[in-house]
Write a structure and sequence with these properties.
heterodimer; A: 396 residues; 4 strands; 69% helix; B: 334 residues; mainly alpha; 13 helices; 2 strands; globular
């Protein structure tokens, strides 16, 4: 899409609004606009002009969708990092939802122990598709153990797939908790100021100072949790401090803006100002932090399972690392893939998240943006030939 | 509150954090599900030790009297802590403070070199990336940095151990020094120490990925500044510009990142020392955790907290001296 799309969209919205108003009874159903519609029968009267500035709820939603979902998505999609990141994360999501349905859980003695990955001697022919030949290539079935088996003959691929839902739950819970808490506390502290700020900032600082991982270890040992959502929250219990501090300092500058001042003058309730006017401006930052926290949760969760501190029921990636270590994967060359499979699972999803976070940072970070705007505007012209994300924003 | 010097306030925050952690550990020992202190008294009693003696033993081991009411016991615990009496480690069979003093230097040794090397690498790579921004080198190193950032340090540690130690035999597979070498300032001891510490130090290299991206961002920002153009117009040499203008301004903000990451790396040492069987602070902490050695566990946790708090405090207090722009004690109050 080109930068010129923006204005067209704007006019589209305007025409939509007009058509919606002319045949209002069919489209406008929400309560706020009813009154206006009933006495808006005289089409073309000068009173119509007034209502043009009034937004219906649908308009507002479509505007929000445009500003916060479609446009940023379109922008980041231009970045190769974002495309790869999205694809990887989507892959894990599919693995955790559909994959679990397709792949059978791993059982001991599924096959021999330590079958190597991609071993062509073990194949299955799913859905009864028989062997066939295409002349240059003969189909004999797909690998039965694509990623090999562990010492007890359990399929590592199935283990990896079935560990995904729990990990995804942890990530989601952890990221939402840390970012949610951090945003709320940071925004309130920054906006209210005074004693509220002093108290909230002190609490935040204590959490920033706490050594996160040892704290999580102690808590995990004491609380004995098995619910993946709770584990996610536990893992990010020390992670929200940094987010709260950053959000607070951004709110400190935002609260001086005109729109906040006018909202205050209009008597908009404080909670509304903070969460409807200020926080949406920080959304990009919040989203970036979410990917970072998610990565942190995976690292720490796998580490805790690897150390054997968290109790476990399923074979998740960290547990597999632990089993591989005690099973002698260090010195048995035939068992190396036992280590590698969970490692690749962990690294894969964190690459996805890091790329996603980085591309978001690239789009929203004003420093990087400023630099790119500068190079396209006055320094060397050839940079401008390739439309960068900076152009997209300047074009808006 | 208003006009207290921010340094004093910052110091107060640090002290407050340490106190909060100590309180937390006290509460945990006292009120933990399963009541470890009660269990310990019972256990000693079952061994045929009379109740009074058993309680006395528990008092020595945990640093607090199980029968005392909460508030006096709390003050006794805190007083003991600040006098260096952290209790008695049931697993290591020695006072916690002695054990901590034994293991601490090893962890610090690995950690300081790890931090130093990873940041040095990160800065060098970051500067190069910024200089050739958008070029092949930038893309290549960005990929490297992303990869480094995606690999948990313990995964790198395991891989290093599998290949360089078990497969190729370049490094020992674990431990701090070779058995039978007498400690002291002799060459075999130092050589063995360095050989054993190499892999843990290298594992910290993953932190260089993050550092390099930070350095890259900072340098790019500085490169876009107007004063750089002025410097060029004044005819300053490239060498002066790159060292005095770009490098200095770009490195300074990383100083805080460096000290903050010390705290994180301290936490990470628990995993790392377990992988390498490197008997430092993290290893002792993990053992205590596994053996339910509460006094040792809390002592180790408190020590890690104090070091982290100290590093962050140092970062905040000295930053003004290192970066003159931040001087003036504005803190972040706005």
């Amino acid at each position: 899409m080109s930068p010129t799309d923006e204005p067209t969209d704007g006019t589209d919205a305007a025409t939509d609004l007009e058509t919606a108003m002319t045949n209002g009874d069919t489209t406008m159903t929400d309560g706020g606009s009813e009154e206006r519609m009933t006495d808006g029968g005289t089409v073309g009267s000068p009173f119509e002009v007034v209502s043009e500035y009034e937004e219906t709820r649908m308009d507002r939603y479509s505007k929000y969708y445009d500003a916060y979902i479609r446009a940023p998505f379109a922008i980041i999609w231009r970045d190769w990092r974002a495309r790869i990141g999205f694809t990887i994360v989507l892959f894990y999501l599919l693995m955790g939802t559909i994959g679990v349905e397709i792949v059978n859980p791993a059982q001991p003695l599924d096959g021999d122990s330590f079958i190597q990955p991609f071993n062509p001697n073990y194949t299955i022919q799913p859905w009864g598709i028989p062997e066939f030949s295409l002349g240059f290539w003969t189909y004999t079935g797909i690998w039965e153990f694509p990623l090999g088996t562990d010492r007890m003959g359990r399929d590592l691929f199935a283990q990896t797939v079935h560990a995904t839902p729990a990990i995804l739950k942890m990530i989601t819970a952890g990221a939402l908790f840390a970012v949610g808490t951090g945003t709320i506390i940071g925004a309130v502290a920054g906006y209210r100021g005074g004693w509220t700020d002093t108290v909230l900032s002190s609490i935040t600082d204590v959490f920033i100072n706490l050594p996160g991982f040892p704290l999580v270890m102690v808590l995990a040992l004491l609380l004995d949790v098995t619910n993946p959502y709770l584990i996610g929250v536990l893992l990010s219990v020390a992670a929200w401090g940094g987010i709260a501090r950053a959000i607070r300092s951004q709110v400190l500058t935002l609260r001086q803006e005109n729109f906040v001042e006018s909202a205050r003058a209009m008597g908009v309730p404080r909670r509304r100002i903070v969460f409807k006017d200020i926080v949406p401006h920080l959304m990009p930052y919040v989203v970036i932090n979410m990917t970072n926290t998610a990565r942190r949760v995976i690292f720490e969760a796998a580490a805790l399972y690897y150390l054997g501190i968290l109790p476990f029921e399923d074979l998740n990636w960290g547990v597999v690392l632990n089993l591989a270590q005690s099973g002698g994967a260090y010195y048995r060359p035939e068992a190396l893939h036992w280590f590698l499979v969970p490692m690749f699972a962990i690294i894969g999803i964190s690459i996805g998240l890091i790329l996603l976070g980085q591309s978001l940072d690239r789009v929203f970070n004003p420093r990087v943006r400023a630099r790119h705007e500068k190079t396209t505007v006055d320094e060397d012209g050839d940079v401008g030939s390739e439309p960068s994300t900076g152009d997209m924003i300047t074009g808006k | 509150m208003a006009q207290i010097d921010w340094r004093i306030r910052r110091l107060g925050q640090g002290v407050f954090t340490v106190l909060a952690v100590l309180t937390l550990s006290f509460v945990m020992i006292r009120m933990m599900p399963g009541n470890p202190m009660g269990a310990m008294v019972e256990q000693l009693r079952a061994q045929g030790i009379n109740p009074v003696r058993a309680r006395e033993l528990v008092r020595i081991r945990m640093g607090t009297d199980p029968t005392k009411p909460l508030v006096p016991a709390y003050f006794e615990y805190m007083t003991n802590f600040f006098q260096g009496e952290l209790g008695y480690s049931t697993f290591y069979q020695m006072p916690v403070a002695t054990k901590l003093a034994q293991v601490m230097p090893w962890t610090l040794f690995v950690l300081s070199w790890g931090v130093f090397i990873s940041f040095f690498t990160g800065m060098a790579v970051g500067a190069m990336m910024a200089y050739w921004e958008g070029g092949k080198l930038d893309v290549g190193f960005t990929t490297f940095a992303v990869l480094m950032g995606s690999i948990p340090f313990y995964v790198l540690a395991i891989l290093l151990l599998v290949f360089t130690s078990y497969r190729w035999g370049w490094f020992p597979t674990g431990g701090k020094v070779r058995a039978g070498v007498d400690p002291g300032m002799n060459w075999p001891f130092i050589a063995s120490m360095v050989r054993h510490a190499t892999l843990p130090i290298l594992s910290y290299l993953v932190a260089s990925g993050i550092a390099s991206l930070g350095m890259r961002g900072n340098s790019i920002r500085v490169l876009g500044e107007d004063y750089l153009r002025v410097a060029r117009l004044r005819g300053l040499s490239d060498a002066t510009i790159s060292t005095q203008y770009v490098a200095r301004n770009a490195v300074l903000p990383l100083y805080t990142t460096l000290l903050i990451s010390i705290g994180e790396m301290f936490g990470g040492s628990v995993v790392l020392e377990q992988v390498f069987q490197y008997r430092g602070l993290g290893f002792a902490f993990y053992q205590a955790l596994n053996q339910r050695d509460y006094a040792m566990m809390m002592g180790g946790f408190a020590l890690i907290t104090i070091v982290t708090v100290f590093a962050l405090l140092l970062a905040d207090l000295t930053y003004g001296y290192i970066d003159p722009r931040a001087r003036g004690g504005k803190d972040e109050s706005y």
